[in-house]
Amino acid sequence: MHTTLESSLPLLLGMAWLLPLLSFTLIVLFGQRMGKHGVGASYLATFSIVVGFLFSAISLGLWLYANPLSAAHAAEPEAQIDVAREHKTPAEEHHAASDLKAPDYYTGDLYTLGQFGSLKISISYYIDALTVGMFAMVTLIASCIHFYAIGYMHDELHDLTDHEVTLADGRHLHRPGRFHRFFQYLSLFCFSMLGLVYAGNIFMVFIFWELVGICSYFLIGFYIERKSACNAANKAFIVNRVGDFGMIVGLMALWGALGTFAFGDAKQADGTVARGIFSQVRDAGQEHALIVPDGMVRASAWKMVQEVAVDHRDHADPAAAESEIESRLSDYRDQHYGYWLLVVAGVGIFCGCVGKSAQFPLHVWLPDAMEGPTPVSALVHSATMVAAGVYLTGRFYPVFTPEARLVIAYTGGITLFLAATIAITATDIKRVLAYSTVSQLGYMMLALGVGGWVAGLFHLITHAFFKSLLFLCSGSVIHACHTNEMPKMGGLLKKMPWTGYTMLAGCLAIIGAGLPPIFGFWPFGFGLSGFYSKDSIIAQAYSFWMANPTHGMILFAAAAGGASITAFYMFRLWFMTFIGQPRDHHVYEHAHESPRIMYLPLVVLASFAVIIGWTFPGVWSVTDLLEQARWPGEAGAGVLMPSLIYPNELLSHQHHVHLIAGLTAFSTALGGFLLATVFYGVRWLNPAEVRQQFAPVYTFLINKWYFDELYDVLFVTPTHFVAMIIAWFDRQIIDGFINNLARWTYRVATFDDLIDRYLVDGLVNLTAAWTWSLGNSLRGLQTGLLRQYIMLIVIGTVALTIIVNFASAG
Amino acid sequence: MNPLTTPVGVSHFMAVGAVMFVCGVVCMAAKRNALGVLMGIELVLNGANINFVAMSSPFLSAHGRGGLGLDGQFIALFVIVLAAAEAAVALAITLNFYNNHATIDVDRADELRG
After folding, report:
1. Min Cα separation B114/chain A (Å)
2. pLDDT tens for residues A230-274?
3. Which of A778, A784, A794 sits opposite B113 (nearest CB)?
4. Which of A272, A274, A318, A496 is the most buried (most CB within 10 A)?
5. Using CA atoms, how far apart are residues A240 and A351, in angstroms rounded to an integer?
6. Which phi-psi region, left, alpha or beta, contains residue A162 (left: φ > 0; alpha: ψ -120 to 50)?
7. Is the ipTM of this complex over 0.90?
8. Is the CB of B107 less than 8 angstroms away from the CB of A782?
9. What is the distance between the alpha carbons of residues A42 and A393, in angstroms, rounded to a whole number?
10. A515 pairs with which residues across the strands?
11. Extended strands (E) in A29-182
């Protein structure tokens, strides 16, 4: 542990994390007053994310300085594999255990939100090589997107007319611009994503997970007046909730059994160590192999534990029962107690990732999310929202059991194939890219599922660069053409060279263009970033196939087939947009290159998309950086499928594996590319004829495998039906009851009013009337004649005297 | 028993007091002039005073001792003081009444009648 890093990394990354929050707060409070029409908000947001990038870059530099990348992994895979194999033989266990080291990480609490018994909810950090790498990637891409958005969103600087919204009177909506609000949400989005990466416990991940969700909701629904945007935002939010339900189940399983949310071991103030989830599941004493933690065994075998406790009820020594249970735990563990709890925890957490990363069957929200402005699509599809799901799967990887991994692998495989096929027929330029994202996310999940931890996260990082690039390029095209439809474009390369060539770089990167090692001047071939990451995924899938014939073949086929389809639809997109004769002259006439603030970020992203995967031995290599965060140790075979074998990821670096993988990737991608060239590049074949030939398939694909219709029938219609019944119940029964109650109250009140008015008021008025008439009748006595009064006094006195005298006499 | 021949006793004083009281009452009731009314009041008060003084005088009582001791004399002194005070207030009222109405006819002072 490096003390300087231990104190400086949380500080640097923490500042990078909190700066966007500061920017968000300032824009919320003063956004409209920042410069003319709130233009200052964009400068503030961009400044904060750029400074965040600087801090992240410094952190990355510090990390690399303290933990130099060893070239060993790349250069000498065989030696590493020997180590990996070595600790499988029991005789040399002790020797091997010393070679296996848990990854370096720094963790700690920043602030405790609350402590309820043993449940501690805190804002904490967990920083390892993955965190540092993700911070640099997210802030860099977000910076580029911020710059781009300043140009792209300039329409919002003044009042504008939204031509996609028709009001009731037939006119288009005219509304004030919302420039500052866009940047406000962008800042919040960056803050949420960075917080998710920074988080040191799964609960904090969940908080930021939801924050990312709500930000995407705000941004997808940015054009809130458009019905489609409104629906898309709701769809994204609701579909994500479905996944989050599983995640909450996973959280409950973890906390209920382990009593902690923290990832890493944290030193307590009293010198003891609070064990986090990872070290409990991957115990250092067991060579970091996957074991069911004590807490889960206890929770699952509670009947036996209770029996032991009952047996020791009358025992003098209170610790005896505890030590007896301790001694029996390994027996329980051998009987697989607690194993399914671990599976539930893993699959539950993965459910959340399925929703967030738009995996089958929850992939339906992502293409609709295209309703947001293009910079948002770029951010959502590369660095933030969907990356969060893959990131969490990667972060939580040590906990996944083989069964959970297989679920991940199949989910990824299905998604990858499904989305790729839909992308073939889509004509909306952003939708093609959206399905391409879903498909690439499937790749990442597939890689993680077949044991390729580094491969999956490597692809996450390279994909982030080229996908944000592709989206920004498509935004640039849309900006120029004012349409999303590719059939109206064509031949734009002459008009928009910057956009066209950077997009070509992005397309080449995503299909994994490169020369496989067979051509030879580089041990792993040479190519653009996507080449390396896709290669390592296919290599791992191949390695998995070798170990598990049935599952492996299906997954390998999905990976290889997906690579081919990817190449086809990406170049279909590029050819249709930039090459050939313009299809719509009106659009073509008006097309123009975007302003410099928009294409410079494209150039930056394009250069990263080319070089990010390159290895500079000892200096920079994404795989070596990620390798530092990989948990060693085996997951072993599953309980359900004892024959399942997860090959060590280092095995996929072997030369013959890599050669086959490289050739597969190269040939499939080349095949897809050539097919696209034949159809759309040189146009030897007419796509319309093929479309007619395969009409049923085409209809099936253009309708997106009828998923929306299926969900409509399965979920939306029943929900509407139930809602209708409940509405009827509400309106008739509950409202009726309430209305009756009101009616009766009214009647009682009317009766009460009568009593008040006639009885109570009547008595009071009667008294008053009597008093008045008495006074009236007495006023005649008051004549005002003094002499008369005196006479009355005298007469009264005399009369009194006489009466008294007669009375006393009588 | 002829009162004119018997020696002067309490009953003679009481007779004088009664005559003065009746004169005063008649004066109050008959006069329209406010000052006349005031005079009547003085007569009434002094008629009562004579009764007090006579009743408590030790020289007039049959057995040489006043039934009331000296109390009657003191009450008479109080009455004189009260009469003086009452006269002062009544004269002031009369003066004001004259200022407002240019007359002191009490029959004209009927503005507060019911």
Report:
1. 5
2. 888 988 898 888 889 999 999 888 888 887 888 888 777 777 777
3. A784
4. A496
5. 10
6. beta
7. no
8. no
9. 33
10. A526
11. 106-116, 119-127, 160-166, 172-175
